[in-house]
Amino acid sequence: MRPATWLVLIATLLLWSGNWIVARAVRDDISPGLATAGRLVIVLVVLSPFAWRELAAKLPQLNRRDWLIVAGLGLAGGGPHLALQWLGLHYTTAASGILYLSTTPIFILLLTTALGERIRARQWTGVAISFAGVFLIATHGAPLSFSFNAGDLLALLSMMMWASYTVLLRLRRDPLGVIALLCMVCALGGLFMAPWLALEALLGAKIALTRDGAPRCSTLRSARCCSPMPAGAMWCRVSARRAPA
Predict the structure, then answer these.
(1) What is the 3-state secondary structure (H, E, C) of 94-145?
(2) pLDDT digits (tens, 9 = 90+) for 166-191
(3) Which of 69, 99, 198, 201 has its CA 20 to 30 A from that of 10?
(4) How many CA atoms lie within 13 A of 207 on its CB side?
């Protein structure tokens, strides 16, 4: 793997780690559904001017298989994945969330094995070493102190969805570029979030406001800093060039 690819992967992981930390910090300011929908809207607003011509030209070329995969990407890597992550952080810590992020390669290897791809022993070894290191850091060197709750389960489910997203990227045959694909993932992810948002509306979804009726600065910062746009773009590009694991 070229050094530039390693740098892109490291930058992506740093962005995702920051995402967990900021999301944990503002979890009481905004509901998971609203936070997720806001992030998707930001991406669409920023990227749509650069992608609409390509989408208009290439979407008619997509066949049934292409649409199924793109829809799967929207489900596994768009709205529900992000909302589960945000909801899980209401009940678990950011450190635990980052620990579960390190489980993604395990799920990727399991999925690619199920698809018939051969996985080398050194790949399993590398994943095991990485996970063990993150686990020791997250538990501060005391593995027996680790606990598991509903938030951990939600975070783990989110990582399973992200692993599915990564594998689906390798199955793509559509002609969409990275920017156009991200727009489609966010648009379809938003559609898949409709039932979640409806449920939140019934239960009383909230967003913390200042005395003037404006969203808190922390909420706005989280929506910008946690946007999936840069990390998603880098991950799409690397996944399209490398094997899923």
Answers:
(1) HHHHHHHHCCHHHHHHHHHHHCCCCCCHHHHHHHHHHHHHHHHHHCCCCHHH
(2) 889 888 899 999 889 989 999 999 99
(3) 69
(4) 17
